[in-house]
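Quick one: structure for this chain?
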Amino acid sequence: MSASTDARDLSANEPITVKIKVEGSGNIHSINCPSLTDASNWKLYPPNKLDPSQNTRTTQGTVEFQQMLRPIAQTDAIPSFELTFFDPSTQQYKTVTTAPIPLEWKASAITGSSAGTGAPATPPPAGTIPVAEMTDIYGMAPAVIMNTLTSPAHWGWYFLAYIPAVILLGMALIRYIRKVQKESFTARERMRSFKKLASTPRQASSTEFLRAAGNFIESYIPPSKQNEEMKTILQLRDDRAFQPSGTADELPHAERQNILQSIKKTIAKLPLLLLGAILAASLSAMSGYAAETDETGIRAYEQGEYTKAIDYFNKQSENPNLSKSARAYACFGTGNSYYRLNKPGLAALNYRRALELSPYFTEAKSNLQFIERKEGAILPPDTTENQWLTYISHDALVPIAILSGAVMLTFLALLTVSRRHGVLLTILATLSGLVTVAAVMNYIMYPETPESIPPDRLLVVTKKTPARHAADMGSPALMTLPESTPLILRAERGSWYYASTFQNTPVWIPKTDAQPL
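Got it. Here's what it folds into:
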C-alpha cells in the first residue's frame, strides 16, 4: 500500500487530496478505503473509490482511493494510512501502513484564526471536472442563476416555435375572420351607424355633424380605446357644437373628411387592441411567477450550521408560492447539507427532487452522479438497446417533438399560401414529420430509468439496507442496497415497500430505509 499527494505548500483550511493505492490478491476490489492513523488535526471527507467499474471477479489486482482532508491545526505531515486484513496463508490478521507524507506550510498560512466548521473551499463551476474525477460535491451556486436555468426547461416555452406557422395560417384565415367580425351584430350596427355619419349631407351645419360624430364615438368606441384623435374630435364637438345658434364657424369639407377617416381607422383597430390587452395581462401574470431566494440558508450552510440550513431549505422547497427554480435551488441546498452531515442517501433524494423541478440543473446532476458512484448505487443496466433509446434524455424528447412539429406545420402552412418550391417544402415537411414521430415513439418506448418514472413511483434508498424476500425482518436477504440507489415502487404493505431495482429484481425493504421522490 502507498499514499501520495500533489499538495506542496499548505494553507490553513485548504483541503488537499491524497491518493491511496492498494495491491494484492483476494477480494481486493471489495475493501474499504484505508483509515488515517491519527485524525485529531484533520477534517476528513467521505473517500472516493477510483474506477469502480473494473472487473471485480478477479482475485489479483489494484484498487485506488481518493481521500480529501483539511487541516484544522498546524501539522508537519499527513499521518500514515493503515489497512487491516486477514491473511489465509498464516491464519492471522495483519496490518499494512503507508509512510507519513511531509508537508511545508506557507509563511502566511497560520493567522491565528480558528479553522471552524465552515464549508470547504468553493469548487469550480459545474462541468469543468468529469464526474469520475470529482473528489467532493459542488457547493452552493449563486441563486440568481436559477431563473435563467429553469425557464427554458419548461416544455411550454417551446410552443413559441409555432408562432411562424400561426402567422402564416393567420394570413390564410384573415379574410374569413374579417367576414365573421363584419357579420356580428355589434360590427354591423357600428358600420351602419358609421355609414349614416359618413353620408351626412354637405349642406348640414357643422353643429349637426360634430354632434353626430361625437355621439358615434361615445356609443361605439370604449373610452379605454379612444386615442388622441378621438379625444380631439370630442373636444372640438364640446367647444363648437354647444354654442348659441349661428355663432359657430363652419367646418371645411376637407376637415370633415379627416374626422371621418380618423374614426374609421380607430374602429378598424378595435380587434387588435382587444388582443393586445389580453397578451399584456398574460405577460403581467407571468412576470409575477419568479421569486427571489434570500441568503439565509446559504449563510447557514457556509458557516457549517447544516441542520439549520436544512430546516430553512425544507421550508423553501415546500412553499407553493415560490417558483420551480427557487424550490429546485432549495432542494439542492438540502442535499448539500445532508451530504455534509454524512447522509448521502438523503442527499441523493433531494438532488433528484431538484432535477424533477429543474431537469437542466447541472450541479445537482453532477452531485447525484458523484454520490451514486461513490456509494455503489444499483443503476439501470447499460445495454446496447438502452444506450440507443436513452441517447437523447427523456426530458429532451418532448421539446424535440414540439419543435419538429412546429417546423412541419410551418412548411405545410407555406404550401397553403405559396406554390413556389413546392417539392422542397414537401420534402422538408416530411422529414420534420418523421422526426416528430420518432421522438413521440421514443418517448413511449423509453426504458424505465429514474428520469422516466413518475415521481410518486420512484423510491430512493436513504439508509443502507438489506433487500429481503418478504415483508419480514426474519426473511433472507437477497442483496444489500447501497444508499442513493433508486427503486421502482410497486406496492405498499404496512411498514414495508415492495419495489424493484432497475435491473428487475423484486425486493421488500422497510419504509424507514427509503423515501419516495
